[in-house]
Specification:
The complex is a heterotetramer, with two copies of chain A (81 residues) and two copies of chain B (157 residues). Chain A is α+β, with helices and mostly antiparallel strands and 81 residues long. In chain A, 22% of the residues lie in helices and 25% in strands. Chain A is globular and about 35 Å long. Chain B has 157 residues and is of the alpha+beta class. Chain B contains four helices and seven strands. In chain B, strands 1, 2, 3, 4, 5, 6 and 7 form a seven-stranded mixed β-sheet that branches. In chain B, strand 5 and strand 6 form a beta hairpin. Chain B is elongated and about 50 Å long. Classes of the chains: A alpha+beta (81), B alpha+beta (157). At the A-B interface, helix 1 of A face helix 3, strand 7 and helix 4 of B. Strand 2 of chain B pairs antiparallel with strand 2 of chain C.
């Protein structure tokens, strides 16, 4: 399946886009998604270790399953304040 | 004890007037701590014009509130009030304000420190530099237009 | 680096307006921390009406300034501004305000904590309770009349 | 000689006075003065361990000598803030 991933801040700048499409096997976990992002979008690879995946505006644990239609966001390189 | 928690995001720099002094005496606290983040004129030796802040609503507000409640309970403080900018905050402007009300200094200071440290690690908030010599680097501009949080697109005077 | 230091004593509760926002951007600091001490309504389970603060001038101002300069150097902060009440401060009033300007949160918080801890140990400033049931205990009244710091004798509205 | 000692805050309340006279041998040090205060004004005794002596508005070290005419203050039980 194809998952659209929202990007913010420095990661959006690195990717040159505020959203990216990633191709993954069906029913991917956040771990699967991060691995696919790293391979398919190498500009983000270095920043993914400290990134978390949000599913429908909640941080998702690494074993949860992403469903079609979920809103997926990459939450990394945060810097509030 | 139920701490009073408020969280708000504001377009552009925070105003001076929102320091909520009226909540002071009603809570009976002995210590009131206000932390403000002010945009500095330089980053890594390069001149800044502003910082452009991004949020991811409603997740950002929800995570700020969750963090405020968590810190209030952990440190036993009476109130945690959070204000954060989205969009452009020029150099010298206030982008973040945290007000802690507690019975004593120690817990207010500890709560302030804990809140900020965790916010910078976990809360969906981002900043991008807007350089004074901005022709050479328009990252922040191109990026702020791309967020799905409409407020970050508003120009701020 | 020469930190900006100001110290002032004020008769009665501190006003809201003296938070010196104009000094904010000129110092270029990234972190502005304001600590305020608010008179609580109880002490040791007994109802308070006010606290009566005493200073011993000019020693008090001199020691506050010395401490502010010492803390500014130790923690590398850009500004330390101290305001303290003398005389009567009713419950809910602000008796003490400390403003720290620093480049980063960590040193501003550390400087705030260090200043207050040392002030409470070394600076000639005293407080006496004015109980709500004051007929039974007029210590504070009899004492405030006895200081040689004239300001502590002024009634404050 | 007789030394007049200014008192403040809780110590003034304990002594019931904002100043006390203390009789000491000539050329006393702050240590001599605290010892004499403890003996001659027992209401203050418990509070003197954490007290310092100011001579002419400066904290005096324990070996300095107090001269006639110096302004002497007992700085103890402070509680700013």
């Amino acid at each position: 399946m194809t998952v659209r991933v929202l990007l913010f801040g420095p990661q959006a700048a690195l990717a040159g886009a505020s959203a990216l499409d990633v191709t993954v096997a069906d029913a991917p976990t956040p771990t699967d998604l991060l691995a696919a992002l790293s391979t398919q979008h190498p500009s983000l690879a270095d920043s993914l270790g400290a990134s978390r995946v949000a599913v429908n505006h909640e941080f998702a644990d690494s074993a949860s399953v992403i469903e079609p239609g979920d809103e997926i966001a990459l939450i990394g390189m945060v810097s509030g304040g | 004890m139920n701490a009073q928690v408020t969280v708000s995001l504001h377009s552009g720099p925070l105003s001076l007037s929102s320091q909520q002094p009226s909540q002071r005496s009603s809570l009976g606290g002995g210590a009131r701590l206000v932390f403000e983040g002010v945009v500095r004129g330089q980053e890594a030796g390069r001149e800044l014009r502003a910082l452009a802040y991004q949020a991811y609503e409603p997740m950002t507000t929800r995570e700020l509130r969750r963090l405020a409640e968590e810190v209030a309970i952990e440190h036993g403080v009476l109130g945690v009030h959070v204000e954060h900018s989205v969009g452009t905050v020029p150099v010298g402007g206030v982008s973040f304000r945290l007000i802690i009300l507690g019975k004593h200094r120690a817990e207010a200071i500890a709560a302030c420190d804990a809140f900020i440290a965790r916010m910078k690690q976990h809360v969906p908030l981002w900043k991008l530099p807007v350089w004074a010599d901005a022709d050479a680097d328009s990252d922040a501009d191109s990026d702020s237009a791309s967020t799905d949080d409409g407020r970050t697109d508003q120009p701020v005077g």
